[in-house]
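Preliminary data (for renewal application), fe (iii) ion complex.
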Amino acid sequence: MQRRPLLPTLSALALAACFGSALAQQPVLNIYSARHYQTDEALYDDFSKATGIKINRIDGDDNGIYSRLKSEGAASPADVVLMVDAARLWRGEIEGLFQPVKSAVLQARIPATLRSKDDGQGSQWFGFSTRARVVVYDKTRVQRADVDTYEKLAAPVNKGRLCTRSGSHPYNLSLFGAMTEHLGPQGTETWLKGLVDNMARAPKGGDTDQIKGVASGECAVAITNSYYLARMMRSGKPEDRAVVEKVAVVFPNQADHGTHVNIAGGAVARHAKNRDAAVKFLEYLASDSAQNYFANGNNEWPAVAGLRSQNPALLALGDFKTETVPISVIGMNQVKVQQMLDRVGFK
Ligand code: FE
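Predicted structure:
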């Protein structure tokens, strides 16, 4: 994955100022993006070809993008913000970094559970792809029936087996925020305590490290976002193939509330100078062709209902039941969740 650093763009902006009159002929859309995938290039090219609007993309991580937006304030050149995870989108929403978007296309195409509340005045965002938080386990040591719900990960049978990244990571904050809707705050705190009691090791690393931990035998059960597993399933590297061979995957809670899903999404920046073009770009992301590019770039599922992914790893994983907790509610619960994590000692 290639990252373009944040700083060199400042000189690009200075250059733009010098040639302002020439550039004024061609509209430019400034996108601050926390997504860094090769296939996104085709996505941007297609948009420029169809609309004549040039795209200037500035890559960063979520913290870098948000602090840049805040320090730039009303002078920010950002028109569109692309982010991953509901917890982060929610943060941008409450910090007032986005603006309301009136779009019949987005209302019709993006399911209501995958976008922020439409109150016509707040700071709004839309999900454009989905990922599931799944359970991976060691086929030789673990019974599938012992890990087929998130709740069971806290059961005594899984003592000393569980590996996960930090509880405070947005992916876990979002999962735990969803569980708060299913189990209530008290039930969720008890469940989190159970997870801590079942750890094979202190939380560390990213999701891929947890999958590798299961393959190496250090862990027997792990929690991961689906695309990390799909990426390994599609990898040509023998060491990745060996890992995939050793593990099995389960979409939790198929018999009741469904598996937790999260999103990658976008918003119109609060101080966008090219507001109409920004909305046009978000509407373009909801089109059939862009949906496939956007989702496939990171082995995710399209957000638009009725579209089927052609991604071979996702086809192999098959269909599953997703939970219906609104992503916006999940974001909202994260402060409460962090307090529970502190109380139960979940690092
Ligand atoms: Fe990720």
